[in-house]
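Dear all,

This email documents one entry for the complex benchmark we are building for the journal club exercise. For each entry we list the sequence lines for every component of the assembly. Then comes the predicted three-dimensional structure of the complex as a token string, followed by one or two observations. Please use this as the template for your own entries, and keep the labels exactly as they appear.
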Amino acid sequence: MSLTLFLQQLINGVSLGSLYALIAIGYTMVYGILRLINFAHGDLLMVTAYAAMYGVLLFSLPWFVSFPLAVIATGAIGILLDRAAYKPLRQAPRISLLISAIGASFLMENLALVLVGGVPKPFPRPDFFGFVIKAGDLHIMVLTIYSPIITLLLVLGLLYIVFKTRAGMAMRAASRDFEATRLMGINLDRIIALTFLLGSSLAAASGIMWAMKYPQINPFMGVIPGLKAFIAAVIGGIGNIVGAVLGGFLLGLCEILIVALLPSLAEYRDAFAFLLLIGVLLFRPTGIMGEPVIQ
Amino acid sequence: MSSFFQMRHVTREFGGLKAVSDFSITLERGELTGLIGPNGAGKTTVFNMITGILRPTAGDITWNGENITRLPSHLITARGIARTFQNIKLFADMKVLENVMVSCHYSMDSSFLAAMLGLPKHGREEKRIRKHSLKYLEEAGLAPLASEKAQNLPYGLQRKLEIARALATQPGMLLLDEPAAGMNPMEKMELAAFIRRIREKSGITIFLIEHDMKFVMNICERIKVINYGQSIAEGTPDEIRSDPEVISAYLGGPSHAQG
Amino acid sequence: MSEKLKFRLNVVSLVFLFGVLFLFSRYGSGYQVRILNNIAIFITMAVSYNLINGVCGLLHLGPNGFIAIGAYTSALLSMTPAEKQINFILEPVIWPINVIQVPFVVSLIAAGVVAASFAFLISFPVLRVRGDYLAIVTLGFGEVVRVLCNAGQSVTNGPLGLKGLYPHTNLWWSWGVAALAVVVIQRLINSNYGLAMKAIREDETAAKAMGVDPFRCLMLAFLVSAFFSGIAGGLLAHLITTISPGLFTFFLTFNLLIMIVVGCLGSTTGAIIGAVLFAWGGEALRIVEQPMEIGPFTIPGIPGMRMVIFSLILMLVILFVRKGIMGRSELSWNSVESMLAGWKRTQKPP
């Protein structure tokens, strides 16, 4: 394989990885505090994509207004999701929470199916992002370059919030010891809402970029990326934000490079992520950033 | 000649912290020994290492001539060491009798196929397990409550059920982790009598952790004292009572006085 | 209640059940027979699924994988070589599948055995973890199976699937298997093995301390569950006569979850009730997808509304009626007896 092709795929891998990373952060943050796998998290991608699309097509908003609005709206929906489906089950056994999450995910998907129909709709990608730069044999879409940059900026912003603000400190405390944090007089409900807001907004940002990357949106578009992002979070060490980012990039790179190096395995692309997961769980269950398991 | 039960230079580290260091003890058949020490001294960690919940970072544990240091919990129980827990860990949603019947599982002869097909051999074994378990409940005075859910029992009886459940595994050695915690003096007396009765009847070795000094001094023949993960004294109750190291560990001693 | 009386009551109920089935098979409409077949297959699936999720307390999200394995195994073995040639148009199917053909019952047993073998293989990674990790790994297994079925052109015929299967499944097969599954699995749950599984669910550390080997116990449950799920898959394949990978997605797992959560988590009776309600409700709810006439108004049908309602029901049950309809209790002759006794007492004058 030529160097150009390799470089091309490397850039593609990093770009895809950045999208996974943003989604993975949401999973890892919620798991860190609530010990819950938010199955409905991936579907937020879909919600943002449709919101952004209708903002442009129905309300004729320019994309730089519609897109951020969609992100904010999705952040709010994330908080709503917690209030409706998870908060009543704070004291319930974990299996109930997981089932509620799965139910919420299916509800969102099928509600969307009913409301907007199952036919994939084209997403209004702004020309700026869709422009393809040609450098010799390399063909790179502007979006592909912007994705990792936007991701990095958002992640830095998040890390600032988590490590340099009081709210962030409360979040970190809550993920260490839920009960003790409550006893310290911290309003856990607000902290949890903030966690969902941040995680969902990041996933929403990823959703917009995803919709621009694959501009055919449908109600079930968030399922596979969501699952893969969760795997990325586990690989990186669930509960650890930096781990989620690393896991996301790693998964994106592996996915693209493996298909590039072994084109005959292209159909198994989705299964690969799960096989990687099983491998990680077998040999290093706490992930890249987690502590090695003592026993 | 190999001793019945032996721990040699057992150490357990967590990160850089030594929860237990260089702990050694030898128990002979039928002894009733106590393990005491201030809170956080490492007593439950010792029990967890014996029963396979934690693995020692160094040292070894031998039982009946066999090195059991690296064995998983269920195999250690099959070898004859049973335990109760500091925080009651009953099978809450299951009936009292069922809690005890679980202890007979590892020694079952008939296979799961026999169970599914309803073979008579299996039915006979189930009957035997039921009778056997009921016997242990009777000895603990819990027989009338056999069909109650374990979580509905009052606290004192839950503790007794834990002991009955452990005894049903037919152990050679029983580890009791704070069996008298939360009991009133009357219940403690009953418990002490119960423990003595067990030992008389079956001659099993008993190793127990307790905070109640009176209880320990009353019932144990030998006592081992541990502080900050290290063994600081060992001997008869009288010897321990007057040991200056023990006194200073519990009370702070003149060299650690406030002020 | 004496064992003899229980035995007699069981025999009577079975005779009654088969009497009803006979009537339907003779006089029932095709639609009714299809629903009854569906109910029986769902019962088998739900009861085996409940063994893992309810009794052992593990959140297993991959039953669709075992059902798929069973369906394909049974289909590939029961089809004639000629039928296989017709189906495999893109790539010929590999040897020995292209020449083998066995009677239906053999293909069903093979379906169960192959599914159980896969369960054996994946127990090693799956049972190393618990809780959420186990959920994700089993989910992954189900997905991997689906992807493999899609990609394995020369074995499963890929996305085209297998068509024209002979409709072997009738009321006797489906209900016979369901009855067998219920009896066998319930016996296992009532035995000491069942106690060991429940103990692991309640407190695994304590169970280990009482001598229970969690890996061995859970793997056994896994094998039994996969075995019956595989057979149910075979029955399903020969009922709807067409299978494709798209049939065995996470959606199927979700449906099973609804069945056992609404019925209860932990009770076989609940699983049965859940399966019946689901099959019935599924049919009944089809009406929301058709135009309805209420008085002078016509409400247009909304396709997809059925799933929305199902999702809502699942969430409402899990949020408000945590333990489902049956809770953890079972319906048995003993419980019927005590219910009757209780009712009689309320009828006596004070």
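Observations: Chain A is about 75% helix and 5% strand. The radius of gyration of chain A is 19 Å.
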